[in-house]
Amino acid sequence: MDFSKDYETHVERIADLFTATFTASEGAEEGALIGELARRLMSDTPAEDLCVLTAWDNGMLIGGIFFTRLTYAGDKRTVFMVAPVAVAPAHQGKGIGQRLIAHGLDVLRQEGVDIAVTYGDPAFYGRVGFAPVAEADLPAPHTLQQPEGWIAQSLTAEPLTLVSGPVRCVAAFNDPALW
């Protein structure tokens, strides 16, 4: 499996991967929503606020992950959100998602990111170092439908401490329906 940061030449393939993956697991409506989110992230997000990584096997796109900046007005640390993540249905259950996440977190560390946060399954993301955080300690950009899924980790040697808001996410995530 090979990783790539080059997404510009594969925008439609990546969006199709996210559509197919979320359609298979959550239904057609969710698949369309997340596929469109992937397109918007790639087309509308400034380069300094976005990192897209893909996983390839013999020229076939088998996974993808997005990292987008969260800006906290009262905090100087660099925070990126991990979402969404997709692994092609035929390749799930092989550890590809966790390897993709771990590789992405290493890339963020190398780029000087201090904190990674995501909104997902604590059991799954816990395997790659994420732990639950209270919204009071690390505010979310919108009200969370499932606050137990707000999880984070420090990407430095420093422990995760209170992050001061208010918070701003990239435009594609500025939709309460996604939270």
In short:
With 179 residues, the protein is α+β, with helices and mostly antiparallel strands. The chain has helices spanning 11-26, 28-44, 96-110, 122-126, and strands spanning 2-4, 50-57, 60-72, 79-87, 115-119, 131-132, 150-154, 167-168.
What does the secondary structure layout of this molecule look like, with pairings?
Blueprint: E1 2-4, H1 11-26, H2 28-44, E2 50-57, E3 60-72, E4 79-87, H3 96-110, E5 115-119, H4 122-126, E6 131-132, E7 150-154, E8 167-168
Parallel strand pairs: 4-5
Antiparallel strand pairs: 1-2, 2-3, 3-4, 3-8, 5-7, 6-7
Helix pairs in contact: 1-2
Model description:
The protein is α+β, with helices and mostly antiparallel strands and 179 residues long. The protein is 30% helix and 26% strand. The chain is built from 4 helices and 8 strands. Strands 1, 2, 3, 4, 5, 6, 7 and 8 form an 8-stranded mixed beta sheet that branches. Helix 3 (96-110) links the parallel strand 4 and strand 5. Helix 1 (11-26) packs antiparallel against helix 2 (28-44). The longest helix has 17 residues, at 28-44. The relative contact order is 0.16. The mean pLDDT is 96.
Termini separation:
32 Å
Helix content: 25-40%
Number of strands: 8
Question: Largest sheet, described in full?
Answer: 8 strands, mixed
- What's the SSE pattern? EHHEEEHEHEEE
Structure classification? alpha+beta
* Unreliable residue runs: none
What fraction of residues sit in β-strands?
25-35%
Number of helices: 4
Cα gyration radius (Å) = 15 Å
- Please, what is the average pLDDT? 96
Outline: globular
